[in-house]
Design brief:
Residues about 30-35, about 55-70, about 190-195 and about 215-225 have low confidence and may be disordered. Strands 10, 11, 12, 13, 14, 15, 16, 17, 18, 19 and 20 form an 11-stranded mixed sheet that branches. Strands 4-7-2-1-9 form a 5-stranded mixed sheet. Helices cover about 30% and strands about 25% of the residues. By secondary structure, it is an alpha/beta fold. The protein has 4 domains: about 1-30 and about 195-225; about 35-185, Sandwich (Immunoglobulin-like), CATH 2.60.40; about 235-315 and about 460-510, Periplasmic binding protein-like II (D-Maltodextrin-Binding Protein, domain 2, 3-Layer(aba) Sandwich); about 315-455, D-Maltodextrin-Binding Protein, domain 2 (3-Layer(aba) Sandwich). About 40% of the residues are buried. The longest helix has 27 residues, at about 5-30.
């Protein structure tokens, strides 16, 4: 009988022990250690983001530049604070015993001033209603006042707090009172430093369970490597931004390599069209979440309330020029002059006598929307006047130049490389790989890694992944998003010079 193989027998015995041991150990632990209510807190990140930051409490001095141009922000720091119920009982709103009827906890940042705070992660969806209510969170001086958030056992929330004043490493504490409980600092695990005393039966159960797990691990290792934890199989379609194609191809390839049995297809026709297609499929599904993820260069346009967004990475884009034009940098005003018809020949901006030819994306492109918003200062591109990008075929009284449109980032870059005098835009790494064109600096800023990280290069935006509602736990959509945003997919993002949102440098750039 095949089912009586050694690995199956060990697996069954381990599963049986697993059902007995955790309740027994948990009961002993709660009786011996975690009596009553307890809220734990800890600092998970404390990093400088100002241009002239001084270290605190033995920390070294550093110089960064995210807030170079903002007053009173040269010594800015970011703190990621986790607050959780790591006690034995649920905490209700009435369990907070402080005198303030609205606020239950106060986070105090020694020697620093709170400038703002945002919720970055929730252990349960219902918590947002308490944290996002008007007046729920307020800050005065070095204190951030938090609402009376009900927390079931194990639930948590995280806050990203922007501070100025004292250096990295200055003390952080959370004050507050709990009925029959306490608010205390904790570590990365929720148990106390001193292990709880276990009874003899509990120690025996733990020993048996440990032996079973070790034997099962040995069987698994001996029988070959399996897929990593969190893998999901099935079919998934990725829609949306063509500029993000190289990254999505890399993510799909690496996920399939880690998780055999998954099929991920790309159907990229532009950010807006991808989001519209996601909404259409979601409505057809009758309320369920279809196996579709739509990627958008920047936030999707309003009008789709069922969409759930995941911030994935900061992507950089570039203004590109045909190599026949030796101009290497232009001010924002001069770039806008190319697109409003004030400059029709490159000789007007220090280049050769060569007509300016604009190569653009079609309406509905996320990259085009970013270009209009970030580079053209929220001004729409002029009307299309040409199909071949060289000859004006549709005379227009308002715009006397040559402007054509193409359907994808790749087509725009190929056209700019082929047409003398052409100028266009596209994703930075795709532009850097295309021969026959070069990247323009904007206002003297080249798209260097440092300028992308600190936001001084203006043509960057967060790449969003949208699903129709929250994907079901264990689905391929949920697994792929976790891989892309928080898992090994960050290596793919970094290889393409994108800045992962779930990284110390990316937190500030991706925060709402």
């Amino acid at each position: 009988m095949d089912w009586l193989s050694p690995d199956n027998v060990v697996a069954v015995l381990t599963a049986l022990l697993s059902t007995v041991a955790p309740p027994a150990v948990t009961a002993v632990y709660r009786r011996g250690v975690q009596r009553g209510r307890r809220i734990g807190y800890r600092v998970q990140m404390d990093t400088p983001i100002g241009s002239d930051h001084r270290g605190g409490h033995g920390q070294p001095n550093v110089r960064l530049g995210l807030f170079n141009d903002l007053p009173d922000m040269s010594d800015a720091t970011l703190v990621l604070l986790r607050i959780e119920n790591d006690g034995a009982e649920a905490v209700a709103e009435a369990d907070y015993t402080g005198p303030d009827p609205l606020h239950g906890l106060t986070a105090v940042f020694t020697d620093r001033v709170v400038r703002g705070a945002a919720v970055t992660q929730l252990g349960a969806a219902h918590l947002m209603g308490h944290l996002a209510a008007p007046g729920a969170m307020r800050h005065t001086g070095n204190a951030l006042h938090l609402p009376r958030v009900p927390l079931n056992r194990g639930e948590h929330y995280k806050l990203l707090v922007l501070l100025t004043g004292g250096g990295v490493g200055c003390a952080v504490r959370v004050d507050g009172g709990l009925r029959d409980g306490a608010v205390v600092p904790n570590r990365s695990t929720t148990v106390d430093d001193r292990p709880p005393a276990l009874s003899g039966p509990a120690r025996g159960i733990v020993a048996l369970l440990t032996a079973g797990v070790l034997v099962l691990a040995g069987v698994i290792v001996a029988s070959g490597d399996g897929p990593p934890r969190g893998c999901a199989t099935g079919r998934l379609t990725l829609l949306g931004a063509t500029a993000f194609r190289p990254v999505l191809e890399g993510l799909a390839r690496e996920y399939a390599r880690d998780c055999p049995g998954s099929g991920i297809a790309l159907d990229l026709r532009g950010s807006d069209e991808g989001v519209r297609e996601l909404v259409r499929r979601g409505e057809e599904a009758g309320g369920g979440a279809p196996a579709v993820v739509a990627f958008s260069d920047g936030p999707a346009r309003e009008g789709a309330p069922r969409l759930a967004a995941t911030r994935v990475a900061v992507s950089a884009f570039a203004v590109v020029v045909n190599d026949r034009v030796p101009v290497r940098s232009l001010s924002g005003d001069r770039i806008r002059a190319l697109y409003d018809g004030s400059v029709l020949d490159w000789s007007q901006v220090g280049g050769p006598r060569l007509p300016v030819r604009l190569v653009s994306r079609r309406d509905g492109s996320g990259t085009r929307s970013l270009f209009e918003r970030l580079v053209l200062d929220r001004t729409a591109e002029p009307p299309r006047t040409s199909t071949d990008c060289t000859t004006p075929e549709y005379p227009n009284g308002r715009f006397r130049g040559v402007r054509c449109e193409r359907g994808s980032t790749e087509e725009v870059l190929q056209e700019v490389a082929a047409v003398p005098g052409a100028v266009g835009y596209g994703e930075l790494q795709a532009a850097a790989r295309t021969r026959g064109l070069h990247v323009l600096g904007i206002d003297g800023r080249a798209p260097s890694p440092g300028a992308i990280r600190d936001g001084s290069y203006p043509f960057t935006e967060v790449e969003y992944a949208y699903t129709y509602g929250d994907p079901a736990g264990g689905s391929l959509a949920a697994s792929f998003l976790d891989f892309a945003a928080r898992g090994r997919g960050q290596e793919v993002l970094a290889a393409h010079r994108d800045l992962p949102c779930y990284s110390p440098e990316g937190f500030a750039r991706c925060a709402p």
